[in-house]
Amino acid sequence: MGKVKHVLLARRPHGVPVPDDFELAETEMPVPGEGEFLVAMRVGSVDPAIRGFLDDRPSYLPPVALGAPVAGMSLGEVVQSNNPKYPAGIFVRAMGTWSDHFVLDENALGLEIVDQKEGTELHHYMGALGPVGLTAWVGLFAVGQVRAGETVVVSAAAGATGSTVGQIAKARGCKVIGLVGSAEKAKVIRDLGFDAAIEYRAAPDIAAGIAKAAPEGVDVYFDNVGGEMLEAILPLMRLHGRVPVCGMIGQYNDADHPYGVKTLWQLVVNRIRMQGFITYDYPDVLDRAQAELEGWVAEGKLKPLANLRDGFEKLPEAFIDLMSGRTIGKTLVRI
Q1: How would DSSP label each residue in 227-250?
Q2: Which 3 state secondary structure label does DSSP give 12?
Q3: Alpha-carbon Rg for the chain in angstroms
Q4: Domains present along the chain, CATH in parentheses
Q5: Which of 5-9, 185-189, 254-258 bottoms out in mean pLDDT, i.e. has the lowest?
Q6: How many angstroms separate the CA atoms of 29 and 49, rounded?
Q7: Which of 144, 210, 250, 253 lies at a CB distance of 3.0 to 4.6 Å from 220, suitable for a disulfide?
Q8: For residues 86 and 57, is the Cβ–Cβ distance under 8 A?
């Protein structure tokens, strides 16, 4: 049946990953067993969370072993199946590995059948119409319990999840402030309809910039970054504010030296609820979330941002660019 290509973890990164941390390899094509199915990767997802899996420390998934394929979300086509629920020819997305073919069973993390709509490119189902959109929806509405008229601040606002959070918060009638790292990214989110964009590298005082844009305070802070940004925003939260914690990309490249947030007392002062989450903790809302995301795209209220590469071998390069802060929107590799 031919060979399977893999991206292996050659060594554990120190700081921002570099090309020598990865290795391309080939093995024999796997054969699915009873109840299993073989998936050909069509779109590989490049996510900040992967950086945590590359360190030899606990995360919500086990660390990637040296010499093993990197773990990551993928969208692929079932090409051989021993499971009637997942016949050959359908598209699925799930947590798999950076392999151009891989075997799954129905217990795979995040496994979903993808119903591609006519006129919608497949890669969007790994972005705003896929795990990215679902993460934004769950964080805002299931965890953050955001309501129309509230003020939402989102960090890494020009990234995959951040840009989606801002747009769907606007679709629900919220005021939205985005935190970004460059003038180019500030323009991107203003064009998406954000009410304010704060370029934190150019602002001497992040808290002052947010306070000026949101003098009434912040109801929901969607945290993708952690560290100093979280520290600056907590004192600006309103009574009973909510902080859904999606990620802490500001610390992924140096997890041995985490930033000590000094304003956590504000959780008590203003009875703030701060909660980490992953999307698949909320299976009961995902069908509703998917339907609303598709509706917002159809209405033009949600414009998916995608940073696309072509070719399986581009996965490490795309990941390095993402972790270096050089990308806008959802970073995806089409195979």
Answers
A1: HHHHHHHGGGEEEEEEEEE---HH
A2: coil
A3: 20
A4: 3-127+304-334 (3.90.180.10), 131-280 (3.40.50.720)
A5: 254-258
A6: 28
A7: 144
A8: no
What is the identity of the amino acid at 290? Q
Note the residue count of the chain. 335
Q: Residue 335 has which token pair?
A: 């195979």
As beta bridge partners, residue 89 has none
List, for residues 45-103, the tens digit of each pLDDT value: 998 889 989 998 877 788 999 999 999 999 999 999 999 999 999 999 999 999 999 99
* Res 258: pLDDT: 67
Q: How far is CA 209 from the centre of its chain?
A: 26
| 239-256 core/surface letters (b: 16 or more CB in 10 A; e: else) | eebbbbbbbbbbbbbeee
d(CA 7, CA 102): 12
Cβ partners under 8 Å of residue 218, min gap 6: 151, 152, 153, 177, 210, 233, 236, 237, 238, 241
* Residue labelled with tokens 């956590």: 264
What is the overall mean pLDDT for the chain?
Answer: 92
Q: Which residue has the tokens 């009637």?
A: 84
With beta carbons less than 8 A apart as the criterion, state whether 309 and 334 touch. yes
Neighbours of 202 (CB within 10 A): 12
Sorted by sequence, the CB contacts under 8 Å of residue 295 that are 6+ apart come out as: none
pLDDT at 252: 52
